[in-house]
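Sequence, please.
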């Protein structure tokens, strides 16, 4: 008989050591971290993008602390980078400086480059200027916020009270309301 059961206590570590080849693989597999933690910790995070798709988005663009654009889209999503915003069903309002009646622009698609502050509207672009009763139709329109220039490198048609202008290209300066047409300009009065 065993006189003192405390003397058998040294058998517990010995049994654990001897039986470790049986239980150790299961314990190691259970304690192994899941996922790729090395990829998420490497680098400073500047190269990682935030991709998204959103329904019904509104973007407000300010220049010198003043609201100039309100852009609404039925759907928005990231482009090739997270600094490029693609849009579907665009309805934009240009308030600008000292505009009593804003300019309304609509298009089927659009892209906004955040770093360059460059807005591109594509496919069935319609620009309505209620102050002068003019409507512009084109398929491609670029807006550069730094220069306040609107450029349409493709055919444009402007319909106003008593006139129609058709041209192959149009540059429009929002700050001066000045137009520059080229590539076969036709004016009907």
């Amino acid at each position: 008989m065993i006189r003192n059961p405390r003397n058998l206590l040294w058998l517990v570590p010995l049994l654990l050591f001897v039986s470790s080849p049986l239980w150790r693989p299961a314990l190691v597999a259970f304690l192994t971290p899941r996922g790729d933690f090395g990829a998420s910790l490497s680098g400073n995070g500047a190269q990682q993008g935030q991709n998204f798709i959103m329904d019904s988005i509104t973007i407000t663009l300010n220049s010198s602390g003043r609201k100039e654009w309100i852009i609404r889209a039925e759907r928005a999503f990231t482009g090739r980078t997270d600094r490029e915003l693609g849009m579907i069903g665009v309805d934009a309002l240009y308030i600008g400086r000292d505009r009593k009646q804003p300019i309304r622009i609509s298009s089927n698609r659009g892209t906004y480059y955040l770093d360059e502050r460059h807005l591109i509207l594509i496919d069935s672009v319609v620009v309505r200027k209620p102050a002068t009763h003019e409507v512009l139709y084109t398929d491609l329109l670029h807006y550069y916020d730094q220069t306040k220039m609107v450029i349409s490198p493709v055919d444009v048609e402007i319909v106003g009270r008593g006139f129609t202008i058709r041209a192959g290209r149009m540059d429009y300066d929002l700050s001066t309301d000045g137009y520059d047409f080229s590539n076969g300009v036709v004016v009907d009065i």
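Residues 164 and 188 are 5 Å apart (CA to CA).
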